Amino acid sequence: MELDQSTALITGGASGLGAATARHLHGLGASVVVFDRDAAKGEQIVSELGETARTKAVFVAGDVLSTDDTERAIAAATELGGLRVVVACAGGARGVQRTLGRDDQPHDLDLFADTIQLNLVGSFNTARLAAAAMAAQEPRDDGERGVIVFVASIAGYEGQIGQVAYGSAKAGIIGMTLIAARDLASRGIRVNAIAPGTIRTEAWDLAPAEMLESFESKVPFPRRLGDPSEFAALVEHLVTNRYLNGHVVRLDGAIRFDPR
Ligand SMILES: NC(=O)c1ccc[n+]([C@@H]2O[C@H](COP(=O)([O-])OP(=O)(O)OC[C@H]3O[C@@H](n4cnc5c(N)ncnc54)[C@H](O)[C@@H]3O)[C@@H](O)[C@H]2O)c1
Q1: What is the pTM of this model?
Q2: What is the torsional sign of CA 163, 169, 171, 173?
């Protein structure tokens, strides 16, 4: 899929990996729709990107768990010339709890269900509605109508103690990627996912310095946290390489999470 003159919808595009992706794809000539529940940061990103003769940047405020909100974001992309790329970044951990706490208290069920809702159900809601809009468009070269990129996590492969909710949600995204790619193959829509390790975004702003240093020290090479621009560069590759489909790529400097 060519990015130049395409429109990309980025959920969670107001911050971190999503904002870096919006900047990168816009820089490559794509118009972007930033869809996020944080209106202040979303408006800021699109005003920073601005409008050129060839590209636009539009912000839509809303929640990926709302079908109405997501359809508004998709309609905004359709108005910009058709939805060709979706990057589903909205998500994150809601808290850390063990299946059974040190005090023998069972894991809070609402925390588990909310984490699955935000990460797995939210990503699926985005994908199913975006696929309907993409399928209605004319195919481009190779019969391609669109590309969806999910965001998992290496916690979906080797979640640490306390990550049972987040790790399960991200494992669901890893599992969904190949199935969605198969489901959407007949419409010319590819589906890939990125499983990041530890990437330095705003999500880590409140983490203690010692925790970040400990993550850094465990990354074999390069011995540092990832940069959001490295994530955005991988999105570009997953979108533009037409033979990549149904694939989950780890982006982690070869780290493998320890149990704790
Ligand atoms: N940063 C990392 O180290 C890392 C590692 C692995 C996976 N991830 C995943 O990457 C994605 C982005 O993470 P990030 O580090 O950029 O986080 P971030 O907190 O900087 O950005 C997440 C954005 O998603 C938005 N959002 C959250 N819930 C939403 C909802 N229901 N509807 C609409 N928007 C919503 C937030 O407002 C925020 O702007 C998440 O899915 C996260 O789980 C991040």
Answers
A1: 0.98
A2: negative
